[in-house]
Amino acid sequence: MLQISQSYIQVITDSVERVYPQEGCGLLLGTRLQDVTVVVDLYPTENAWNPAVAGMIGVGTGKTDRYWIDPAVMFQAMKAARSRHLDIVGVYHSHPDHPAIPSECDRRLAWPEYSYIIASVRQGNVVEMQCWRLNVQHQFESEMIQVTDPQTSKLAQ
Ligand SMILES: [Zn+2]
Q: Which residues surround ligand 1, an ion (CB under 5 A)?
């Protein structure tokens, strides 16, 4: 289960709607407990897809159906998280005019310990958000999102 506050859901929603029709992306910082991952902060990133990374993640049609987080940015995020005793616990990204279901490309590039929030954006509006996590066969399984209320999240911050 992934625990995330309503205010962060809103931040994700706003950020991926803003970059529509391109894919938007960012990192989830938090802590992993036994059965629950708690999102404590977000680390928004650029969609750094460019033709140079196409060989790794597939050409597609560009940023409208691909995203890429610069490994250097990933490293900065990891350092920022560590300094606060947090980890990168997942990634969020959007699927413009596609369902909130991971693509084969998403699956191939996914890390086993991460939670993957995918937001489906239709005509500029987020219509659905789902979370996914790899199982031992490296296949995605749905992970429940538990939204905590804004008051709770304010206390947590
Ligand atoms: Zn995707």
A: 103, 106
Cα of 71 to ligand 1 centre, how many Å? 17
For residue 94, how far is its CA from the centre of ligand 1 (angstroms)? 7
Distance between CA 57 and CA 121 in Å, rounded?
A: 21
Number of domains comprising the chain: 1
pLDDT in tens, 7-45: 999 999 999 999 999 999 999 999 999 889 999 999 999
Beta carbons of 119 and 94 less than 8 angstroms apart: yes
Can you give the pTM of this predicted structure? Answer: 0.91
Please state whether the peptide bond connecting residue 112 to the residue before it is cis, i.e. omega within 30 degrees of 0: no
Residue 103 within any structural domain of the chain: yes
- Give the CATH number, domain containing residue 26: 3.40.140.10
